[in-house]
Amino acid sequence: MLAVRVAERFIQGEVFNVWIQSPETGCGKSHLAMSILQQVNEASPQNRRTLFLDFGRTMELMRDSVGNRESMYTQNYFVTLASKVDVLVLDDLGAETGDIYSDKRASEYTSNVLRSILNSRQHKPTIITTNLSGQRLLTGYREGGRFIPPMYDKKMMSRAMRKVEHILFKDTPDKRLLGF
Ligand SMILES: Nc1ncnc2c1ncn2[C@@H]1O[C@H](COP(=O)(O)OP(=O)(O)O)[C@@H](O)[C@H]1O
Ligand SMILES: [Mg+2]
């Protein structure tokens, strides 16, 4: 299976990003990302460090820290943390804006955070899971005469999608409906 192969390549020290995409929720993207981390954790002889970040929750904590001096979850905290680990999962990219079918772009703030994280990891592997389509991420698209813009900065995304492995779920039933 592709995910096992991906984990093996990470364990061997290969560097590439992984995009796990599906239009639906509940088909196992987060589960798969977590299982890759688990394999790396278990097999890696050098004690590699891995981190799983729910991107929406991360952004929420970060925003909250702006007005809350007690909070340790600052932008700097997360970006530094994300830059240090050997394998990072950014889970559910796009969910932070609420409705993925709206024509909203991510806020400048979110885009900047994402850019900082990705820039700090140019030589380390990152796994990104998302319900967003390639078009929504990269180019934007036309729908009923309306232009739906790309969610994030085009340049940033095309860089993040260089040297990638794609794992696409198509027509995978919602596992939550199957009583797993
Ligand atoms: N391969 C699998 N085997 C068993 N349960 C799974 C598997 N993949 C996902 N699940 C379960 O199905 C549910 C939905 O999976 P999740 O990874 O959250 O989907 P997504 O991230 O695509 O929305 C979760 O409860 C998860 O534990
Ligand atoms: Mg998920």
Give a quick set of tags describing it:
180 residues, alpha/beta, Rossmann fold, five-stranded parallel β-sheet, two-stranded antiparallel ribbon, 7 helices, 40% helix, disordered C terminus, binds adenosine-5'-diphosphate, binds magnesium ion
Overall mean pLDDT stands at: 88
Helix content: 40-55%
Number of helices: 7
Bound molecules: adenosine-5'-diphosphate, magnesium ion
> Could you name the CATH class?
Alpha Beta
CA-to-CA gap between the ends? 20 Å
- Strands of the widest sheet, in order across it, are 2-3-4-1-7
Secondary-structure-derived class: alpha/beta
Q: CATH topology, anyone?
A: Rossmann fold
Model regions low in confidence, pLDDT < 50 over at least 5 residues? 176-180
* Envelope shape: globular
Architecture per CATH nomenclature, i.e. the level-2 architecture:
3-Layer(aba) Sandwich
